[in-house]
Amino acid sequence: MYLKTIPFTIFSMKRLADYKDELHSCSKCGLCQSVCPIYKITGNDCTVSRGQFIMLQGIIKGELKMSKTINRYLDLCLKCGACTKFCPSGIDVVDIVALAKAEYFKLHKTEKLKTTVIKILLNILHFIHNINIFKPKSKVYDKKVVYFAGCGGVQNSVIKLLNSMNIEVISPNFSCCGFPLFVRGDMSSFKKYMDKFYFILEKYSNYDIVTNCATCEKTLKSYQKYGGKIVNIKNIFQYIRENNLRLELNNLQKVTFHKPCNLDNFEDIKWILENTKNLEYLEMKDFDKCCGLNGITKLSEYKTFSKLFAAKHNNIAESGASIVLTSCLGCEASLKLFSFGKYNVMDIIKFIEKNSNTKN
Ligand code: SF4
Ligand code: SF4
């Protein structure tokens, strides 16, 4: 059944020109400027949706060429989606920027080299996370789900927690959701990850797919926009709340939480933070503002991004917590890398499982 979608996904990938009407619907009101973290630093309209859309309209009309300068502006966009939530026309900047990047990608070998490096890193990550997978006790469970661990899923913690809710976990070898390639405009590699997902899923079409990474969840849900079949994707936080699983830590821990931009529903996580015994949740200022993760761009644009890290780090310090929890592999890696050892950063599921006596 899913196999039949593969040729379809190959030919149905949208192009920038398909977004002509959306770009035209931008009223140039400038409201996106008030929420864009990058515009607040640069003050340059070319780094926020409004200015980017004007440039991209020029490209579609053939009045502008997709230059290195325009590509740099596209790279500066965090793909945080803050402007989309605020935009009166609801224009999806993340998709548009990715497809604009795809136009540049087709013409420049250096971009291909960058995504080759990203793919190698993703494969290494995937390999590391697939060593030593926890084998649950053999028993009869009430329910069975398929776990999408992605390239950096915290497999054992997720499996143990789901088992503790009497849910059996099937963990196929899915690999990455493709998001890091999508945002760099490498649509061909993105499609390969997407097709692999549906190919593997062919065997498990009757089960819910569960993930613990906000970015994986959002990306898997977005597949249908690119010709993929609709499947039931859930995150583990929904399961914990739906099962009214009251967790308890072994010792009192003061934590704060960084909300990933790709996490659409914070309510389930908030419920966990507020209902776990021995866990004191200290909300940091701007907990839902982007951490500045922007793939390899943050290396070439370090000066700009360091201002975002600095703001996030100040907010973490002021929260009074010594541990920062999050639910996206990318945010976790970025916060860890730029914490310079000042505080601990952990995936929320891994943290809870490591600090409690979860029964499986
Ligand atoms: S908020 Fe939306 S409509 Fe207004 S300028 Fe920005 S992209 Fe255009
Ligand atoms: S997605 Fe984020 S960084 Fe990009 S233009 Fe919108 S608000 Fe700015």
Description:
- This protein has 360 residues and is of the alpha/beta class.
- 50% of the residues lie in helices and 11% in strands.
- The chain contains 19 helices and eight strands.
- It has helices at 5-12, 20-24, 31-35, 37-42, 49-61, 68-76, 82-86, 93-107, 109-129, 155-164, 179-182, 187-201, 214-222, 236-242, 267-275, 297-300, 302-319, 329-337, 348-354; strands spanning 143-147, 167-170, 209-211, 233-235, 248-257, 277-281, 323-326, 344-347.
- The strands form two sheets. A four-stranded parallel β-sheet has the order 2-1-3-4. The protein has a four-stranded parallel β-sheet with strand order 6-5-7-8, with helices on both faces.
- Helix 18 (329-337) links the parallel strand 7 and strand 8.
- Helix 6 (68-76) runs antiparallel to helix 8 (93-107) and helix 8 (93-107) packs across helix 9.
- One iron/sulfur cluster (SF4) binds at residues 26-32, 49-50, 53, 83, 87-89, 91.
Pairing-aware structural class of the strands and helices?
alpha/beta
CATH class of the largest domain: Alpha Beta
Strands of the widest sheet, in order across it, are: 2-1-3-4
What compounds sit in this structure? iron/sulfur cluster
- Count of DSSP strands: 8
What level of helicity do the residues show? Answer: 40-55%
Determine the strand fraction and express it as a percent band. Answer: 5-15%
Query: Distance between termini?
Result: 34 Å
Q: Assembly type of the shown chains?
A: single chain
Molecular shape: globular
**Uncertain spans:** 1-11
Please give the radius of gyration in angstroms: 21 Å
Under the CATH scheme, the architecture of the largest domain is: 3-Layer(aba) Sandwich
